[in-house]
Design brief:
Order of helices and strands: HHHHHHHEHHHHHEH
Largest sheet: 2 strands, antiparallel
Helix content: 55-70%
Number of helices: 13
Strand order of the largest sheet: 1-2
Low-confidence stretches: 290-295
Number of strands: 2
């Protein structure tokens, strides 16, 4: 690709996008989503009915839309190409981190369930997926979409684009908290969408769900920074988390207890891998790649 095509846009939009970094992303990300989602909340009709489902899907594209738009405005087609490379390049994920990605959530759920049994939180900490959901085409599609498609849309923009911009200016911990807080705000309307969780085992309450998303982001930053900024790694980690929750999820009385589990993991990661980078004490965060610098 020629240098002319790789160069970021030089017009007013390009200048504004670069000047607004890193706060342009949450403005577009939240503004686009809430523009489409507000009519769903006030409609009192199922989110899966027409036209609400269309509005939901359009609003749900906001992290991908914001990430791609700003990557192009700030870096041109090179920015888009970089996102695609980090989404498809399997070699960024070392085998040990592949094991972490696959096994983290099943082990987390089982250990937390064991802890709940030990301290008497509940006698039935886990809820297994029913066979009728596995053989119901609509329920099965919802499960697959919830597990894999939604993380793809979210991770490209949230972590692939915006987390880089935040880590250029802040420590990994602070960047993760900011990233996770905005991610939680984006998710808040979901509990107001009529029927959104009808085909899942998950029924969140904002009091524990929003802090959980912030803490989960710290874990995602840990994975991201240790896989050379791999979007594929955080996408798979996110997807396996969603899938595990649907196949071997927690019973409702477990969720306040789960928040303590997320907090404990976050504390261990920050203490063990350092708040500066979540890669190890004295190890710098990986920075966005440029033609003259490779992380």
């Amino acid at each position: 690709m020629s240098g002319e095509h790789r160069r970021p846009p030089a017009g007013r939009l390009g200048r504004v996008a670069r000047a607004a970094t890193p706060w342009g992303f949450p403005i577009i990300y939240l503004g686009w989503a809430f523009l489409f989602w507000a009519p769903i909340v006030v409609s009192n009709e199922s989110v899966w009915s027409f036209p609400n489902v269309g509005l939901f899907l359009m609003g749900g594209l906001s992290p991908l839309f914001a990430g791609l738009l700003l990557a192009w405005l700030t870096r041109g087609w090179e920015g888009i190409s970089d996102l695609g490379t980090r989404l498809s390049e399997v070699g960024r994920i070392d085998p040990a981190w592949g094991v972490v990605i696959v096994l983290y959530w099943p082990l987390f759920n089982l250990l937390l369930a064991g802890g709940a049994l030990l301290v008497g939180v509940t006698g039935e900490p886990l809820e297994f997926i029913s066979t009728d959901r596995l053989f119901n085409p609509v329920a099965l599609f919802s499960l697959v979409a919830f597990a894999f498609i939604f993380p793809l849309v979210e991770e490209v923009g949230l972590r692939g684009y915006w987390l880089d911009r935040l880590q250029e200016r802040r420590s990994a911990l602070v960047a993760g908290v900011i990233n996770g807080t905005v991610w939680a705000i984006w998710h808040a309307p979901f509990v107001l969408f009529p029927g959104y969780y009808a085909n899942t085992t998950f029924e969140p309450e904002l009091s524990w769900w929003l802090p959980m998303l912030v803490l989960n982001t710290i874990i995602l930053v840990w994975v991201y920074n240790n896989t050379r900024r791999s979007i594929l790694a955080v996408l798979l980690f996110h997807a396996f988390g969603n899938m595990t929750g649907e196949l071997v999820g927690f019973t409702p009385e477990m969720y306040p207890f789960i928040l303590s589990g997320y907090a404990l993991v976050a504390v261990v990661l920050v203490a063990g891998w350092s708040p500066d980078s979540l890669r190890g004490w004295g190890v710098r965060s990986p920075l966005a790649e440029t033609p003259n610098r490779r992380s």
